[in-house]
Write a structure and sequence with these properties.
By secondary structure, the chain is α/β, with parallel strands linked by helices. It is built from ten helices and 14 strands. It folds into two domains: 199 residues, DHBP synthase (Alpha-Beta Complex); 79 residues, Rossmann fold (3-Layer(aba) Sandwich). The chain binds adenosine monophosphate (AMP) and magnesium ion (MG).
Protein backbone atom coordinates (compact mmCIF):
# COMPACT_ATOMS: atom_id res chain seq x y z
CA UNK A 1 0.00 0.00 0.00
CA UNK A 2 1.61 3.26 -1.12
CA UNK A 3 1.79 5.86 1.61
CA UNK A 4 0.77 8.71 -0.64
CA UNK A 5 -2.64 7.26 -1.46
CA UNK A 6 -5.37 9.47 -0.06
CA UNK A 7 -7.47 8.16 2.78
CA UNK A 8 -10.49 7.91 0.53
CA UNK A 9 -8.50 5.72 -1.86
CA UNK A 10 -7.32 3.63 1.07
CA UNK A 11 -10.91 3.13 2.18
CA UNK A 12 -11.84 2.07 -1.35
CA UNK A 13 -8.87 -0.30 -1.47
CA UNK A 14 -10.09 -2.21 1.60
CA UNK A 15 -13.78 -2.07 0.68
CA UNK A 16 -13.02 -3.51 -2.76
CA UNK A 17 -11.40 -6.42 -0.95
CA UNK A 18 -14.59 -7.06 1.06
CA UNK A 19 -13.09 -5.63 4.23
CA UNK A 20 -15.00 -3.36 6.65
CA UNK A 21 -14.03 0.30 7.02
CA UNK A 22 -15.14 2.93 9.56
CA UNK A 23 -16.75 5.91 7.80
CA UNK A 24 -17.79 9.34 9.06
CA UNK A 25 -21.36 10.50 8.57
CA UNK A 26 -23.31 13.49 9.87
CA UNK A 27 -25.38 11.20 12.14
CA UNK A 28 -22.80 8.83 13.70
CA UNK A 29 -19.79 6.90 12.37
CA UNK A 30 -20.66 3.78 10.35
CA UNK A 31 -19.04 0.38 9.94
CA UNK A 32 -19.19 0.03 6.17
CA UNK A 33 -18.95 -2.89 3.77
CA UNK A 34 -19.92 -3.64 0.15
CA UNK A 35 -23.72 -4.09 0.30
CA UNK A 36 -23.61 -6.49 -2.68
CA UNK A 37 -21.12 -8.80 -1.01
CA UNK A 38 -22.13 -11.68 1.30
CA UNK A 39 -18.61 -11.78 2.65
CA UNK A 40 -18.34 -8.09 3.54
CA UNK A 41 -21.83 -7.92 5.06
CA UNK A 42 -21.24 -11.09 7.12
CA UNK A 43 -18.17 -9.41 8.58
CA UNK A 44 -20.26 -6.40 9.67
CA UNK A 45 -22.60 -8.62 11.71
CA UNK A 46 -19.70 -10.55 13.21
CA UNK A 47 -17.68 -7.48 14.19
CA UNK A 48 -20.67 -5.74 15.74
CA UNK A 49 -22.02 -8.95 17.34
CA UNK A 50 -25.28 -7.86 15.76
CA UNK A 51 -28.19 -10.31 15.60
CA UNK A 52 -28.75 -11.44 12.00
CA UNK A 53 -32.44 -10.56 12.23
CA UNK A 54 -31.56 -6.86 12.46
CA UNK A 55 -31.28 -5.58 8.86
CA UNK A 56 -28.73 -2.98 7.73
CA UNK A 57 -29.15 0.47 6.22
CA UNK A 58 -27.58 0.86 2.77
CA UNK A 59 -25.88 4.15 1.86
CA UNK A 60 -26.00 5.66 -1.64
CA UNK A 61 -24.85 8.87 -3.29
CA UNK A 62 -26.82 8.53 -6.52
CA UNK A 63 -30.51 8.04 -7.25
CA UNK A 64 -29.60 5.99 -10.28
CA UNK A 65 -27.76 3.42 -8.23
CA UNK A 66 -30.59 3.31 -5.69
CA UNK A 67 -33.05 2.60 -8.47
CA UNK A 68 -31.07 -0.52 -9.41
CA UNK A 69 -32.01 -1.93 -6.03
CA UNK A 70 -35.44 -0.63 -5.07
CA UNK A 71 -38.69 0.92 -6.25
CA UNK A 72 -39.16 4.63 -5.57
CA UNK A 73 -42.50 6.47 -5.21
CA UNK A 74 -43.96 9.99 -4.87
CA UNK A 75 -43.54 10.23 -1.12
CA UNK A 76 -39.93 9.17 -1.48
CA UNK A 77 -39.24 11.93 -4.03
CA UNK A 78 -40.91 14.60 -1.90
CA UNK A 79 -38.77 13.72 1.11
CA UNK A 80 -35.64 13.12 -0.96
CA UNK A 81 -35.89 16.61 -2.48
CA UNK A 82 -36.28 18.25 0.89
CA UNK A 83 -33.92 16.32 3.13
CA UNK A 84 -31.29 14.47 1.09
CA UNK A 85 -28.44 14.18 1.55
CA UNK A 86 -29.28 14.10 5.26
CA UNK A 87 -30.30 12.14 8.36
CA UNK A 88 -33.34 10.30 6.97
CA UNK A 89 -33.63 6.61 6.04
CA UNK A 90 -36.33 5.27 3.73
CA UNK A 91 -37.65 1.72 3.75
CA UNK A 92 -38.55 0.86 0.16
CA UNK A 93 -39.57 -2.22 -1.81
CA UNK A 94 -36.57 -4.23 -2.93
CA UNK A 95 -36.31 -5.14 -6.62
CA UNK A 96 -36.16 -8.86 -7.37
CA UNK A 97 -33.06 -8.44 -9.56
CA UNK A 98 -31.20 -6.30 -7.02
CA UNK A 99 -27.67 -7.42 -6.14
CA UNK A 100 -28.08 -6.51 -2.45
CA UNK A 101 -26.76 -9.34 -0.26
CA UNK A 102 -29.43 -11.38 1.53
CA UNK A 103 -27.54 -10.67 4.77
CA UNK A 104 -28.45 -6.98 4.51
CA UNK A 105 -32.22 -7.41 4.43
CA UNK A 106 -32.53 -10.56 6.52
CA UNK A 107 -34.23 -12.00 3.40
CA UNK A 108 -37.02 -9.40 3.55
CA UNK A 109 -38.48 -7.80 0.43
CA UNK A 110 -37.72 -4.29 1.70
CA UNK A 111 -34.52 -2.28 1.90
CA UNK A 112 -33.59 0.62 4.20
CA UNK A 113 -31.67 3.30 2.26
CA UNK A 114 -29.98 6.57 3.09
CA UNK A 115 -28.03 9.39 1.40
CA UNK A 116 -25.40 10.56 3.92
CA UNK A 117 -24.25 14.18 3.83
CA UNK A 118 -20.63 13.96 4.96
CA UNK A 119 -18.39 15.20 2.11
CA UNK A 120 -15.70 12.56 2.50
CA UNK A 121 -18.17 9.70 2.62
CA UNK A 122 -19.96 11.07 -0.42
CA UNK A 123 -16.65 11.20 -2.27
CA UNK A 124 -15.93 7.64 -1.20
CA UNK A 125 -19.37 6.46 -2.36
CA UNK A 126 -18.86 8.18 -5.73
CA UNK A 127 -15.65 6.22 -6.25
CA UNK A 128 -17.35 2.84 -5.70
CA UNK A 129 -19.42 0.69 -8.05
CA UNK A 130 -21.55 -0.64 -5.16
CA UNK A 131 -23.47 1.00 -2.27
CA UNK A 132 -22.31 0.63 1.33
CA UNK A 133 -24.13 -1.25 4.04
CA UNK A 134 -23.25 0.70 7.17
CA UNK A 135 -24.76 0.33 10.62
CA UNK A 136 -23.34 2.41 13.44
CA UNK A 137 -19.72 1.47 14.18
CA UNK A 138 -20.23 0.15 17.70
CA UNK A 139 -20.68 -3.25 19.32
CA UNK A 140 -24.42 -4.01 19.33
CA UNK A 141 -26.42 -2.32 22.14
CA UNK A 142 -23.48 -0.04 23.12
CA UNK A 143 -23.07 3.72 22.65
CA UNK A 144 -22.86 4.90 19.03
CA UNK A 145 -19.54 6.45 17.91
CA UNK A 146 -19.26 10.09 16.90
CA UNK A 147 -15.51 10.29 16.17
CA UNK A 148 -12.70 8.21 14.68
CA UNK A 149 -11.37 7.63 18.18
CA UNK A 150 -14.72 6.22 19.35
CA UNK A 151 -14.64 3.70 16.48
CA UNK A 152 -11.10 2.74 17.45
CA UNK A 153 -12.25 2.25 21.05
CA UNK A 154 -14.96 -0.13 19.83
CA UNK A 155 -13.02 -2.29 17.39
CA UNK A 156 -9.29 -1.63 17.88
CA UNK A 157 -7.24 -3.55 15.30
CA UNK A 158 -10.19 -5.70 14.26
CA UNK A 159 -11.00 -3.30 11.42
CA UNK A 160 -8.54 -2.40 8.69
CA UNK A 161 -9.16 1.31 8.35
CA UNK A 162 -11.18 4.25 9.65
CA UNK A 163 -11.72 7.28 7.45
CA UNK A 164 -11.15 10.44 9.53
CA UNK A 165 -14.01 12.93 9.27
CA UNK A 166 -14.11 14.99 12.48
CA UNK A 167 -16.94 14.79 14.98
CA UNK A 168 -20.37 13.86 13.64
CA UNK A 169 -22.37 17.08 13.27
CA UNK A 170 -25.76 15.74 14.33
CA UNK A 171 -24.71 13.00 16.75
CA UNK A 172 -27.97 11.03 16.58
CA UNK A 173 -28.98 8.29 14.14
CA UNK A 174 -31.26 8.93 11.16
CA UNK A 175 -35.04 9.08 11.31
CA UNK A 176 -36.42 5.93 9.64
CA UNK A 177 -39.63 6.11 7.62
CA UNK A 178 -41.32 3.16 5.97
CA UNK A 179 -42.56 4.22 2.51
CA UNK A 180 -43.44 0.82 1.12
CA UNK A 181 -47.15 1.45 1.62
CA UNK A 182 -48.69 4.10 3.88
CA UNK A 183 -45.88 6.16 5.45
CA UNK A 184 -44.94 5.09 8.95
CA UNK A 185 -42.20 6.35 11.28
CA UNK A 186 -40.07 3.39 12.44
CA UNK A 187 -37.40 5.22 14.40
CA UNK A 188 -37.04 8.74 15.75
CA UNK A 189 -33.87 10.45 14.57
CA UNK A 190 -32.07 13.51 13.27
CA UNK A 191 -35.08 14.90 11.35
CA UNK A 192 -38.12 15.91 13.38
CA UNK A 193 -41.42 14.23 12.51
CA UNK A 194 -43.13 17.63 12.26
CA UNK A 195 -40.86 18.51 9.30
CA UNK A 196 -41.71 15.23 7.57
CA UNK A 197 -45.43 15.80 8.15
CA UNK A 198 -45.15 19.24 6.60
CA UNK A 199 -43.65 17.83 3.41
CA UNK A 200 -46.03 14.88 3.11
CA UNK A 201 -49.16 16.65 4.40
CA UNK A 202 -49.60 13.90 6.98
CA UNK A 203 -50.02 13.61 10.76
CA UNK A 204 -47.57 10.80 11.41
CA UNK A 205 -46.56 9.98 14.95
CA UNK A 206 -43.96 7.63 16.29
CA UNK A 207 -45.62 4.56 17.74
CA UNK A 208 -43.31 2.55 19.99
CA UNK A 209 -42.74 -1.19 19.86
CA UNK A 210 -43.41 -1.79 16.19
CA UNK A 211 -40.90 -4.57 16.64
CA UNK A 212 -41.97 -6.72 13.75
CA UNK A 213 -41.46 -3.95 11.22
CA UNK A 214 -38.26 -2.54 12.64
CA UNK A 215 -36.65 -5.58 14.20
CA UNK A 216 -33.65 -3.69 15.52
CA UNK A 217 -35.63 -1.35 17.70
CA UNK A 218 -34.83 -3.34 20.83
CA UNK A 219 -35.48 -1.82 24.21
CA UNK A 220 -31.86 -1.92 25.36
CA UNK A 221 -29.62 0.09 23.08
CA UNK A 222 -27.15 2.97 23.11
CA UNK A 223 -26.19 1.78 26.58
CA UNK A 224 -23.17 3.02 28.55
CA UNK A 225 -23.43 -0.18 30.63
CA UNK A 226 -24.00 1.79 33.85
CA UNK A 227 -27.33 2.41 35.61
CA UNK A 228 -28.87 5.66 34.44
CA UNK A 229 -31.68 7.67 36.07
CA UNK A 230 -33.73 10.14 34.03
CA UNK A 231 -35.61 13.39 34.87
CA UNK A 232 -33.45 13.99 37.94
CA UNK A 233 -33.30 17.28 39.85
CA UNK A 234 -30.53 16.35 42.28
CA UNK A 235 -27.84 13.67 41.83
CA UNK A 236 -26.71 11.16 44.44
CA UNK A 237 -23.23 11.33 45.93
CA UNK A 238 -20.52 10.36 43.37
CA UNK A 239 -23.05 10.13 40.56
CA UNK A 240 -22.28 11.68 37.16
CA UNK A 241 -24.88 14.41 36.53
CA UNK A 242 -25.82 15.37 32.96
CA UNK A 243 -27.19 18.90 32.61
CA UNK A 244 -28.69 20.93 29.79
CA UNK A 245 -28.73 24.42 31.25
CA UNK A 246 -26.25 26.42 33.32
CA UNK A 247 -26.57 26.05 37.09
CA UNK A 248 -24.92 27.84 39.94
CA UNK A 249 -23.37 24.66 41.26
CA UNK A 250 -19.90 23.25 40.66
CA UNK A 251 -18.30 19.83 40.78
CA UNK A 252 -16.22 17.39 38.75
CA UNK A 253 -19.28 15.21 38.34
CA UNK A 254 -21.22 17.77 36.27
CA UNK A 255 -21.42 17.20 32.52
CA UNK A 256 -23.09 19.89 30.41
CA UNK A 257 -24.66 18.88 27.09
CA UNK A 258 -25.63 22.52 26.61
CA UNK A 259 -25.68 25.63 28.77
CA UNK A 260 -28.96 26.96 27.36
CA UNK A 261 -31.16 23.95 26.49
CA UNK A 262 -30.12 24.03 22.82
CA UNK A 263 -31.48 20.73 21.48
CA UNK A 264 -29.07 20.49 18.53
CA UNK A 265 -26.17 20.98 20.89
CA UNK A 266 -27.60 18.47 23.38
CA UNK A 267 -27.92 15.89 20.58
CA UNK A 268 -24.39 16.49 19.30
CA UNK A 269 -22.86 16.07 22.76
CA UNK A 270 -24.99 13.18 24.03
CA UNK A 271 -23.07 10.05 22.95
CA UNK A 272 -19.69 11.73 23.41
CA UNK A 273 -20.60 12.59 27.01
CA UNK A 274 -22.01 9.14 27.81
CA UNK A 275 -18.77 7.60 26.52
CA UNK A 276 -16.69 10.04 28.57
CA UNK A 277 -18.63 9.23 31.76
CA UNK A 278 -18.24 5.51 31.11
CA UNK A 279 -14.47 5.90 30.60
CA UNK A 280 -14.20 7.88 33.84
CA UNK A 281 -15.59 4.77 35.58
CA UNK A 282 -18.63 6.38 37.21
CA UNK A 283 -20.96 3.82 38.75
CA UNK A 284 -24.17 5.63 37.87
CA UNK A 285 -25.56 8.53 35.83
CA UNK A 286 -28.35 10.99 36.56
CA UNK A 287 -29.83 13.08 33.75
CA UNK A 288 -31.73 16.34 34.07
CA UNK A 289 -35.18 16.47 32.42
CA UNK A 290 -35.02 17.16 28.68
CA UNK A 291 -38.00 18.83 26.91
CA UNK A 292 -39.85 16.20 24.86
CA UNK A 293 -40.31 18.31 21.71
CA UNK A 294 -38.69 18.06 18.25
CA UNK A 295 -35.19 16.64 18.55
CA UNK A 296 -35.86 16.34 22.29
CA UNK A 297 -38.19 13.45 21.49
CA UNK A 298 -35.33 11.58 19.78
CA UNK A 299 -32.92 12.41 22.60
CA UNK A 300 -35.38 11.10 25.21
CA UNK A 301 -35.97 7.94 23.15
CA UNK A 302 -32.21 7.23 23.17
CA UNK A 303 -31.87 8.05 26.86
CA UNK A 304 -34.77 5.81 27.79
CA UNK A 305 -33.28 2.88 25.92
CA UNK A 306 -29.79 3.61 27.26
CA UNK A 307 -31.26 3.48 30.76
CA UNK A 308 -32.79 -0.01 30.25
CA UNK A 309 -29.44 -1.53 31.27
P1 LIG B 1 -28.47 0.99 12.77
O1 LIG B 1 -27.83 0.50 11.55
O2 LIG B 1 -27.88 0.43 14.02
O3 LIG B 1 -28.65 2.47 12.79
O4 LIG B 1 -29.95 0.38 12.74
C1 LIG B 1 -30.62 0.30 11.53
C2 LIG B 1 -32.07 0.20 11.79
O5 LIG B 1 -32.74 0.17 10.53
C3 LIG B 1 -32.46 -1.06 12.52
O6 LIG B 1 -33.09 -0.70 13.70
C4 LIG B 1 -33.41 -1.78 11.60
O7 LIG B 1 -34.52 -2.25 12.28
C5 LIG B 1 -33.83 -0.72 10.60
N1 LIG B 1 -34.02 -1.34 9.30
C6 LIG B 1 -33.08 -1.72 8.43
N2 LIG B 1 -33.62 -2.31 7.35
C7 LIG B 1 -34.96 -2.31 7.55
C8 LIG B 1 -36.07 -2.78 6.80
N3 LIG B 1 -35.92 -3.38 5.62
N4 LIG B 1 -37.28 -2.61 7.33
C9 LIG B 1 -37.43 -2.02 8.52
N5 LIG B 1 -36.44 -1.55 9.28
C10 LIG B 1 -35.20 -1.70 8.80
MG1 LIG C 1 -26.81 1.33 15.73
Amino acid sequence: MKKDLSNIKKSKFYLDKNECVGIPTETVYGLAGNAYSDKATSKIFKLKKRPRRNPLIVHYCSLKMLQNDCYTNNNFFKLYKKFCPGPITFVLKLKKNSKISKNVTNKKNTLAVRFPKHTKTRKLLKSLIYPLAAPSANISTQISPVSKKDVKDEFGKKIKFILEGNESKIGLESTIINLKNKPQILRLGGIEISKINKVLGTKLKFIKNKKLIAPGQDKVHYSPGIPMRLNIKKPKLNEAFILIKKRKIAGKNLFYLSKNKNLKEIAKNLYKTLRMIKNKKYKSIAVEKIPNKGLGETINDRLLRASKF
